[in-house]
Structure formats: C-alpha cells, structure tokens
C-alpha cells in the first residue's frame, strides 16, 4: 500500500503544473482562445476618486467591444508626472492617459503623443461640442493631441454652522468683494482659532479669479506677463490682505481648515466635490455659491483635462476606439451623472448638477459664461513656480505687493522668452 505521502504526490505534480502553466492550455483551451483574441489597453489617470465611475464606463465599453479590455492604472498627482516622464523615456507610456494643460506642449512637441486629426476626421466626433478654449489648449503646432474630458471652475464654499454661530447671513450670488471682506472679519474668532476664510497662495483656486474679475491679467495676448498691470496689482493687494490681516491662515491646506471647522469660507475648484461629499462630518453643514463680484463683474478661472494617446501605442485602433467612446455625448453625460467630473461635452454639465441636489452645484455652471481659461504657455509650470516664489513674501506681508509683482513680471518674461 502506498503511504499517504506518496498518494498525494500526483496531486502535487498537478498543482505544480498548473502553476507553471503546463496543464492550463490543455484543460482551459476555450478560455485561452478567447483571451488570445482580446487586446488590453492601459488607461492612466491620477484621481482615485474618479476610478469607480470610470470603471463602470470602461465595463460598458468592454461589453460593447468584447475584444478589448481596459486596464485603469491610478497614480496620485504627486507621482503621476514623474511616472509619465519615466515611461516616455522608456517608451512605455500608457496607451491612453490623462493630459494637463501644463504638460501638453512638452509631450506633444516631443512626439510622445499620437496626432488625432485624421482619426477625428474619419469619425463622428464633433469638436465643436466642446469648449473651444479647451480644444485649443490641447492643440500643439497645428495638431490635436487631446480630446477634452472635463472642465472645472471655481466657487465659494461656506460653513453654515460657523455662520450661524457668528450671526452672519449666508453668502449669496449678489455678494461683492466688500461683502466677502466684511463677513471674513465677523467670522474670524482668534480665541477659537477660527478664520473667516482660507485664501491660500494659489492661483487657480485663488488670486487669478480676483485678478481677472478686476480687469487684470496674468498673461497678455502677446504672451507677456500681466503682473505690472495696476488692476492685477490691485487684485493681489485685496486677495493678500486676508492673510495679512489675520482673517486667513497663510500656511497649510485650505481644505484641512475648512473640513475641521477652522475656516468659515474657502474657494474650491469643482474637482473637490468628491472630498466634500465623502466627508460625513462636513457635508451636512456646508454649501456653495458663485464667486463674489466687483463692479457687477465676476470671473472664474476654468481649466480641463484631456484624454491623449501614446504615439508608441501598439494598439492604436483600440485606443482610439476607447477615446472616441469616452468623448461621445452619451458617455460624457453618464460620466457627469456618476459624479466623475463636469463633463466637457455641451449640455452634460446640467446632468452633473443633478447628481447632488444637496448643494448649489449650479454655482459652478453659472461661472462658465464669464470664465477665463487658465493662463498657459509652452512651459507654464516654470514661470508659475517662479511667480509663487517671488510673490510669497508679499503674501506674508514681508514685502510690498507692487514690488513683488514687478519682480514676478520680470522673471516671468525672462522664462517665457527662453521658450521661444
């Protein structure tokens, strides 16, 4: 009689062969044949909060295209561009991936992205259904390298609990700059460590909105710095005054202060909605209104992402089929309904507003009619970082705003000239 140990040996061999892949082709030939006919494309994104909604959309795409599988790969914002640069160097970019206005020139001009012009012409995709400003951002040297995925605007959030405790009326769409300043003063409670507002040193979610509302600019039409414009300087004086007067913190993250009842108001981009909705202790005591106006005018900065395709993809047809699918009216509306983001397709924004009627999300959509595209050049990040560095002492009250703005303009112009 064989020992128990010897009787188990055939089972062990079988298991080993399964692991090594020797038996699998024989026993599971049907599944293997199916897999052999399937193409897998990778989809690189940086926002994990959007992954569940995008996964649903990708699943629908796979059902309609059973020969294509979509592998969504998430890398956080901090590491996304490092990953992308390394992948570009190694020739292993994702087949499809998110592109940002700050980076489009670098990747487009250096032949890392697939030109989409001919593919668009041969398809039913209508670029006129997307904001022209976003379409133009993702065009480099006359070629379209990205299809707008979504867009974002900026609005004013407020904490109803802190307003009630301070006896201050809630903000409305009629608020002016003066109203914002007066409310911030009343809401600030130094004994409790509460600030009236969190106005951090940020451009898109901060001072850009005030600069353009005031008639100023960060970048002129001929690609020169707008920081010497008196209207730009006046807006910076106003925005920086909150921190200089102790009405706003000057370090840390605005969302941290707002989420912990330490700031009664804050400016947030529409991409932050997920963080607010998922915060159980916050979502029932906050709401949102359009930005305050000055002299009857308000301007929100808007920006948007695009879906791009690697120039070196081995699955061009499948990648384009997926991008074209993502860009369709039906899917753009579904993305809005799932709360993924404000889809860029014409009319899809209304669907996004209806996803959560608890908040006045229409505030973000109302900003669109007078919105200003986020200023950009070929290498936006370089001069943005330099401007932050130079403006910081003025923001902290350590240097006159006019002096810092003029220094920023000089440095910015020098960097832009180097782009030529």
Structural overview:
By secondary structure, the chain is an alpha/beta fold. The protein has 2 domains: 32-152 and 303-353, D-Maltodextrin-Binding Protein, domain 2 (3-Layer(aba) Sandwich), CATH 3.40.190.10; 154-299 and 377-419, 3-Layer(aba) Sandwich (D-Maltodextrin-Binding Protein, domain 2). Helices cover 46% and strands 12% of the residues. The strands form 5 sheets. Strands 2-1-3-12-6 form a 5-stranded mixed beta sheet. A 3-stranded antiparallel beta sheet has the order 9-8-10. The protein has a two-stranded antiparallel sheet with strand order 4-5. A hairpin with a 2-residue loop joins strand 4 (139-140) and strand 5 (143-144). Helix 11 crosses helix 12. The protein is globular and about 65 Å long. The protein starts with a helix and ends with a helix. The model is unreliable at 1-34 (pLDDT under 50).
Keywords:
single chain, 420 residues, alpha/beta, D-Maltodextrin-Binding Protein, domain 2, 2 domains, five-stranded mixed β-sheet, 20 helices, 14 strands, 12% strand, globular, disordered N terminus
The gyration radius over C-alpha positions equals: 26 Å
Beta-strand content bin:
5-15%
Q: Span between N and C termini?
A: 86 Å
Principal-axes geometry comes out as globular
Q: What's the number of domains? A: 2
């Amino acid at each position: 009689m064989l020992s128990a140990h010897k009787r188990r040996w055939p089972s062990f061999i079988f298991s080993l062969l399964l692991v090594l892949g020797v038996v699998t082709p024989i026993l599971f030939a049907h599944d293997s044949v199916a897999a052999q006919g399937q193409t897998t494309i990778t989809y690189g994104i940086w926002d994990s909060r959007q992954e569940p909604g995008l996964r649903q959309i990708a699943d629908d795409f796979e059902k309609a295209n059973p020969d294509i599988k979509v592998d969504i790969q998430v890398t956080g914002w901090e590491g996304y561009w490092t990953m992308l640069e390394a992948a570009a160097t190694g020739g292993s970019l994702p087949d499809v991936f998110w592109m940002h206005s700050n980076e489009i020139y670098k990747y487009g001009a250096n032949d890392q992205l697939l030109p989409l012009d001919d593919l668009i012409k041969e398809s039913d995709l209508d670029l006129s259904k997307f904001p022209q400003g976003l379409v133009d951002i993702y065009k480099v040297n006359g070629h379209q390298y990205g299809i707008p995925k979504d867009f974002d605007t900026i609005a004013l959030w407020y904490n109803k609990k802190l307003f009630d405790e301070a006896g201050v009326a809630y903000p409305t769409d009629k608020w002016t700059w003066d109203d914002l300043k007066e409310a911030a003063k009343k809401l600030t409670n130094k004994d409790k460590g509460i600030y009236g507002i969190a106005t951090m040193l940020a451009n898109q979610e901060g001072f850009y909105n005030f600069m353009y509302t005031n008639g100023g600019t960060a970048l002129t039409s001929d690609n020169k710095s707008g920081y010497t414009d008196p209207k730009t300087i006046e807006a910076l004086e106003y925005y920086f005054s909150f921190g200089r007067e102790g009405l706003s913190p000057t370090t840390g993250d605005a969302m941290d202060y707002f989420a912990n009842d330490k700031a009664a108001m804050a400016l947030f981009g529409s991409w932050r909605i997920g963080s607010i909705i998922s915060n159980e202790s916050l979502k029932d005591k906050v709401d949102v209104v359009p930005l305050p106006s000055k002299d009857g005018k308000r301007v929100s900065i808007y920006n948007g992402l695009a879906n791009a395709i690697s120039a070196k993809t081995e699955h061009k047809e499948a990648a384009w089929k997926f991008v074209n699918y993502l860009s369709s009216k039906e899917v753009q509306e579904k993305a809005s309904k799932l709360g993924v983001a404000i889809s860029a397709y014409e009319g899809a924004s209304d669907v996004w507003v209806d996803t959560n009627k608890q908040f006045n999300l229409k505030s973000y959509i109302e900003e669109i009619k007078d919105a200003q595209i986020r200023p950009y050049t070929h290498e936006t990040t370089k001069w943005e970082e330099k401007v932050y560095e130079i403006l910081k002492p003025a923001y902290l009250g350590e240097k006159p705003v006019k002096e810092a703005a003029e220094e920023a303009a000089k440095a910015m112009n020098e960097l832009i000239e180097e782009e030529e």
